[in-house]
Specification:
- The protein has 692 residues and is an alpha/beta fold.
- The protein folds into three domains: 242 residues, TIM Barrel; 171 residues, no CATH class; 222 residues, 3-Layer(aba) Sandwich (Rossmann fold).
- It has 28 helices and 21 strands.
- The protein has an eight-stranded parallel barrel with strand order 1-4-6-7-8-11-12-13, surrounded by seven helices.
- The longest helix is centred in the middle third of the chain and has 21 residues.
- The chain is globular, with a radius of gyration of 26 Å.
């Protein structure tokens, strides 16, 4: 056993204020808000957190149009602002922070914001006098040298210069000694060759480095499993860091710490520590004030005249991917390369690089779900609606793998006729038990109003419910696995890299499905109480750890082929698509289980981001080769601007006045996209004549 305390450190990479993954220092899928991500790591009792701002000089560009929601205000994107907010809102562990430190003043700002250590990369090679000055000013324990390494052969490595994007003419071992001579207190060795590939860390690299310097080393690059942490820690390195690994999984950090505490002198994970209980976050006065402020803002905006607030948008700032038709203002977290190709296209055309075959991954899924199944009534929960993907998920688990699924549905009372008929037939067609959880319709109506006003998304309850109810049922029935279909952001935006296998996790549920609003944020609005919202209360972290519950996406284990899968469930089970076309998309088989997803919810997305379901569906069909990009652009423009036909139904259900609806809806229009000229809303691609 190593006698010196070792650490396991999450490393968070930022670009333009958003958390990104990295692969080979050249691909940057966007994860989302640094605040949700880092808060989650702090809740997990992380030994330390490394935050590196890699906003430049990569040559790649992120969209300048981030979602402006509760999680990431547009004004809080600088590294100093991120650190300051984290420190002000959490009891955080030591934070090592780096990126863009070119002079003493940069370092002072980060220290004053709350950074405990400074991570220096380019300065090590290009500004050695600055490094020495910072060591003198703050002490060696405060300065970390980050050395990027590239594998050039068996036990052969060279130093990669992030600033110039080429190798440094300095032997790797000389570089280690050089950094140590500058007086730094730690050295972070970042293996570019394994960055993001999950192939395990280069143990020979770590062992060789340990022989060359007495300065404590942090190894990062290549972690893909729990066992990789164990292998790296056994070298005697001071700390093992990982970035991508912690984004994709539900509770990875506590599991690593708990598993390897007996073998290593790790800082202990405290099981007795009180987890942050979400009930304690309820603030009724704050919630009502936020609701009232949103209504007030909408009324004031109209009263002042929209011309002033909506006058700065420029058409050139709204652009479509040069390969598909996804837009720069995407609600899904996108990045674009220097050729204007979005991260979704990049990921789509790289998925053939997954190391395992479909058959091997299918075997992996069977082994996961069937392990320890003796004595259980069900092998897994399958989250379903009346949609085509739900039928395929249930079919695959029950009739291909031969397992025992329990089907679970969240009923948001928004069914299309075809969606409802498909749902009613599912239990009998698949031959599996089926639980449907139906919240009170009056509560649903009030939730529609609350979330529409707060976030411009009246269907928030459905997104959160779909990602909550199956997990709650699994906890109640002691079922360890919940199966969902496709990971939407992985598919559309390339959020995760090939082979990552993202699990369902609380951070993603909160930030992306919940728009960074939790059930606690609506208590008190429209008379809603905590007990009214029981359906939407996600299992606690304690429950997740004690039961080992995990949510998996079937698309992580199959070559996902929606068109083929749809034809299969039609032939075998008589699944039916919509007999009535949708106004906002040309498809009749997608999202038909919820009328608002292809309707009013999507129209509100058009106001907020300038595009809708027509763009989403055309993007997928272009990537799969079904349609040309030219036709995709035409379809997207035609359907994105269409007014939905479910509007009257929603107004009747909520009893909201139409004029108030449009005032509030218009307050969510993005001023980066929309202009208001002579009583008309102007979209960058066309003058919209739709209502509002």
């Amino acid at each position: 056993m190593i006698s010196v305390a070792q650490r396991v450190i999450p490393c968070v990479l930022l670009r333009d204020g958003q958390v990104v993954q990295s692969q080979g220092f050249s691909s940057w899928p966007v994860i989302g808000s640094p605040f949700n991500t880092i808060r989650r790591l702090i809740d997990f009792q992380a030994d330390e957190v490394i935050i590196l701002d890699i906003s430049e000089p990569t040559g790649l560009t992120l969209s300048n149009y981030h979602r402006d929601d509760l999680a990431l205000p547009a004004t809080e994107r600088s590294l100093v602002q991120v650190v300051r907010r984290i420190v002000s809102e959490t009891e955080c562990p030591p934070m090592a922070v780096g990126g863009g430190i070119r002079k003493v003043e940069d370092a002072v700002k980060l220290i004053e914001a709350g950074a405990d250590k400074l991570v220096l990369n380019s300065a090590i090679w290009h500004l050695p006098s600055l490094v020495r000055e910072l060591v003198e000013e703050f002490g060696s324990q405060c300065i970390v040298a980050s050395i990027d390494v590239e594998e050039t052969g068996d036990n052969s490595w060279e130093i990669f210069d992030w600033k110039t994007a080429r190798a440094i003419e300095r032997n790797f071992f000389d570089g280690l000694r050089y950094a140590a001579d500058l007086g730094v207190g730690e050295i972070l060795i970042n293996n570019r060759s394994r960055d993001g590939y999950r192939t395990g860390q280069n143990l020979e690299l770590i062992k060789s480095a340990l022989l060359e310097t007495s300065v404590p080393l942090i190894a990062v690059g290549g972690i893909g499993s729990h066992a990789d942490f164990q292998s790296a820690l056994r070298t005697g390195v001071s700390a093992v860091a990982a970035s991508n690994y912690f984004h994709a999984l539900e509770v990875p950090y506590p599991l690593v710490k708990k598993r390897y505490e007996p073998e290593f002198s790790l800082r202990p994970y405290d099981d007795a520590k009180t987890f942050r209980e979400r009930d304690g976050l309820v603030d009724v006065e704050r919630n009502q004030a936020r609701f009232n402020a949103r209504v007030g803002h909408a009324l004031e905006l109209e009263s002042a005249g929209y011309e002033k607030a909506f006058s700065l948008a420029r058409p050139e700032n709204f652009f479509r991917c040069s390969s598909c038709v996804m837009v720069s203002s995407s609600a899904t977290p996108l990045s674009f390369d220097s050729k204007g190709v979005c991260s979704g296209c990049q990921a789509h055309f790289s998925r053939s690089s997954v190391a395992k075959s479909s058959a091997e991954r299918q075997d992996d899924l069977f082994n996961i779900l069937s392990a320890g199944a003796e004595g259980r009534d069900y092998d897994c929960v399958v989250a379903v609606s009346g949609g085509k993907d739900s039928y395929f998920q249930a079919h695959f688990i029950k009739n291909v793998l031969g397992l025992r699924p329990l089907l679970v549905t969240y009923d948001g009372n928004n069914w299309t006729p075809a969606g409802w008929q498909n749902l009613v037939r599912m239990r009998e067609a698949i031959g599996a038990d089926h639980i449907v959880v139906r919240p009170n319709n009056e509560v649903l109506s009030r939730l529609n109003i609350a979330s529409f006003v707060l976030m411009g998304d009246m269907n928030w309850h459905a997104h959160l419910g779909i990602m909550t109810v199956p997990m709650k049922v699994a906890i109640e029935k002691s079922i360890p696995w919940v199966i969902y279909g496709e990971h939407g952001y992985e598919d559309l935006a390339g959020q995760f890299l090939a082979g990552d296998g993202p699990e369902v996790n609380y951070r993603e549920r909160l930030e992306h499905y919940g728009r960074s609003f939790e059930w606690t944020d609506v208590v008190g609005i429209q008379g809603l109480t905590s007990s009214d919202l029981e359906v939407w209360k996600y299992p606690t972290d304690r429950q997740l750890l004690e039961t080992s519950l995990r949510g998996l996406h079937l698309s992580s284990f199959l070559a996902w082929a929606p068109d083929e899968q749809t034809e299969l469930v039609k032939q075998i089970y008589g699944w039916q698509d919509s007999q009535t076309p949708f106004a906002r998309t040309y498809r009749t088989a997608s999202n038909l289980d919820d009328m608002h997803e292809n309707g009013l919810h999507d129209w509100l997305k058009y106001l907020k981001f300038g595009y809708g379901r027509g763009t989403d569906h055309a993007t997928k069909d272009i990537r799969s080769g079904k349609i040309s990009r030219g036709l995709g652009v035409e379809l997207a423009k035609r359907h994105d601007s269409a007014f939905p036909d479910d509007f009257e139904r929603w107004i009747s259900m909520t009893e909201m006045k139409e004029d108030l609806f449009f005032r509030i809806a218009n307050s969510f229009r993005s001023p980066k996209i929309w202009r208001f000229v002579q009583g008309r809303w102007i979209h960058p691609e066309l003058e919209t004549l739709t209502r509002g």
